[in-house]
Specification:
The structure is a homodimer of 369-residue chains. Chain A has 369 residues and is an alpha/beta fold. The first copy, chain A, has two domains: 177 residues, Rossmann fold, CATH 3.40.50; 160 residues, Dihydrodipicolinate Reductase, domain 2, CATH 3.30.360. Chain A contains eleven helices and 16 strands. In chain A, the strands form three sheets. The first copy, chain A, has an eight-stranded mixed β-sheet, covered by helices on one side. The first copy, chain A, has a six-stranded parallel β-sheet with strand order 3-2-1-4-5-6, with helices on both faces. In chain A, a hairpin with a 3-residue loop joins strand 13 and strand 14. In chain A, helix 2 crosses helix 7, helix 6 packs antiparallel against helix 11 and helix 7 crosses helix 9. The relative contact order of chain A is 0.17. At the A-B interface, strand 7, strand 10, strand 11 and strand 12 of A face strand 7, strand 10, strand 11 and strand 12 of B.
């Protein structure tokens, strides 16, 4: 489907390929048809263009409430007009045999409904993070996909990114010694509205009913997930404090700033911060008992991530050429291969559910004070 | 007293002088005689050599349990042998009119006893941080100095250091906008023993009875104090998680790692980390609503501190030549001038007591989970 992108892809660094565990599709491979559910900033700007880096995947359908934007995007990706759906006729995707999987990029509170409807329509589901707006929704998503016999993967992009994978491998191989302290931050100054395809829209991430929470749900979750993914440990204790500037209309419904502390059973402590009020950059630092440290910066966003390691051996400075589109391509490819080979994704629904439960604990801790 | 050092001092940068608010002593000035209580790493390595940068101060007496080391140090600083005291005859300092003030550099748990005895002996007290091992001790110290009519200052070295003072001034002038998020870390890999003047001694900082706690008491306190000092705000909510590697004999009595979160009433959140298990460097970062950030690194130790500011105006990179000895000299000078001019020190006992109460809340929060 993507001869040019296949060439681009194969030209990528061997290390990146190996780290991301992407296998180039063979000529005889079937490819997975994705239906894009929700045409917003992520699907238009990243997921769809990223598919050129997913040799086992191709876009075949669209679900959108906006016929104008849907028509533009469908034309851009050679999607047939009859494969454009609205939310009212969403369940008709069941009849479209070209659709193997859906990619859900809706506001958080809608993830559960459309994941469950997609599974019932017989489709596998790749759902954006955070998995949902509430724990109970995430539980229903896992149950629905299980009972429908469909795969569910949460789009933890970083878990398919070579620098993150390298960090995880080094930590688990003991390069830093025993992990002792994590500090991580991710925050930005959010606008009350955004532009999309010539239109101005209000920021749904500031509406509790749609987002379920503030920066923790949106960007803080990266710090949380990286802490778990890179160390392979689950937090045993969580405490948190959140704060908002009085009078800022953006933060009437969701928190502005949040700092949280975690304790892991092995003796690791983590201090994390997130914000919708100010850029905190996007860093992840882990220090271990060999007096060695790992720093990722940028660690989470759409620029190529960078991993630096000092102590415990020769210094390492690893920044694979793997920015946003390739990151989205890698996760789309992973899920496509899981479907083709009947494997469980690295970040299944249960992984998203774990974060949702931890996020609920963080919010509960912040409310307690 | 120190003609060479006076010249060194006057050669220092004007900015540093202004920031540290040190006024060169005039020829007619009286100087303050310090009695050094406790000859350990800090007093031998930093405070005493730092006095050459304190034109209004001079060392006049020593209290030590070790006659050999006391004799060496007395000779080095021209202190008369009759001005060397032991702890048994400590109260005799009352009779030494050359002693205006004591500098207390003992293990934390001994601060209260010797502060109170010094005040009763009619001496002003400059006491190392942390102020004490327990809140109740700190309260007694404040009360004893007040009732004796003697000044009490806690040796918050950074509050007399030009980069910290510049940071505080910029933040309070609104350069960053409203302070939103702080992240701060200070930690190191502690040895179970240390060398002093040719002897190996066990590390008292790992003994709960002497230290009162672990890295939070020793180095984490810098993150806490900087958060309060630079913003001028007091935390309203505090949460914490601490952790220790099982089996490490260093951490039988005190915590190894500690992460804590703070909320300030104005809408500021802070995420801090400290460790005795691994170096975390020594950084302080503050981001504000003008999408401007301040980073201090190094922020707390004996190297010259560095302040970098981005956003909210022209970038700033300020690293005054003001390493350890000058920092100790600046605080010794400040206290000497306060005594000479009958002023209240910038970091009085009440300031140390505030930190002690917050530290107790951090430990209580960490124990709760």
């Amino acid at each position: 489907m993507h001869p040019l992108s296949r060439r681009d892809f194969l030209a990528g660094s061997v290390a990146a390929l190996a780290a991301a565990r992407i296998q180039p599709a063979t000529a005889s491979s079937k490819t997975i048809g994705y239906c894009i559910v929700g045409l917003g900033r992520v699907s238009i700007g990243y997921f769809l263009p990223g598919l050129k880096y997913a040799p086992s995947a191709r876009p075949v359908a669209i679900v959108s409430r906006d016929p104008r934007i849907a028509a533009i995007i469908a034309r851009r990706y050679g999607i047939a007009p009859r494969h454009i759906y609205g939310y009212a006729d969403f369940d008709r995707i069941a009849d479209n045999r070209e659709i193997d999987a859906v990619y859900i990029a809706l506001p958080n509170a809608l993830h559960a409904e459309y994941t469950i409807r997609a599974a019932r329509a017989g489709k596998h589901v790749l759902c954006e993070k955070p998995m949902s707006a509430q724990v109970e929704q995430a539980e229903r998503m896992v149950a629905a996909c299980r009972s429908a016999g469909r795969k569910l993967m949460i789009a933890y992009r970083c878990q398919y990114e070579p620098a993150t994978l390298r960090a995880r491998q080094l930590v688990r191989a003991g390069r830093l010694g025993r992990p002792l302290v994590i500090t991580a931050r991710f925050g930005f100054d959010i606008s009350p509205s955004f532009r999309l395809m010539g239109e101005t829209r209000p920021e749904w991430r500031l509406q509790r009913a749609l987002a379920g929470g503030g920066p923790l749900m949106d960007v803080g979750i990266y710090c949380l997930n990286a802490s778990r993914f890179i160390t392979g440990q689950e937090p045993a204790g969580i405490q948190a404090e959140s704060s908002s500037q009085p009078g800022d209309p953006r933060f009437r419904q969701v928190e502005e700033n949040l700092a949280w502390s975690m304790r892991f059973p092995s003796g690791l402590a983590a201090a994390c911060a997130t914000s919708y009020g100010v850029s905190l950059g996007e860093s992840f630092e882990l220090s271990g008992s060999r007096n060695a440290s790992l720093r990722m910066d940028p660690a989470y966003g759409y620029a190529s991530h960078r991993l630096q390691v000092t102590g415990g051996g020769a210094p390492l400075d690893f920044q694979p050429d793997f920015s946003g589109h390739r990151q989205f391509g890698a996760e789309a490819e992973h899920f496509a291969r899981c479907i083709l080979e009947n494997r469980t994704p690295r970040s299944p629904g249960e992984e998203g559910l774990r974060d949702m439960r931890l996020i609920a604990r963080i919010y509960a801790a912040a409310r307690r004070t």
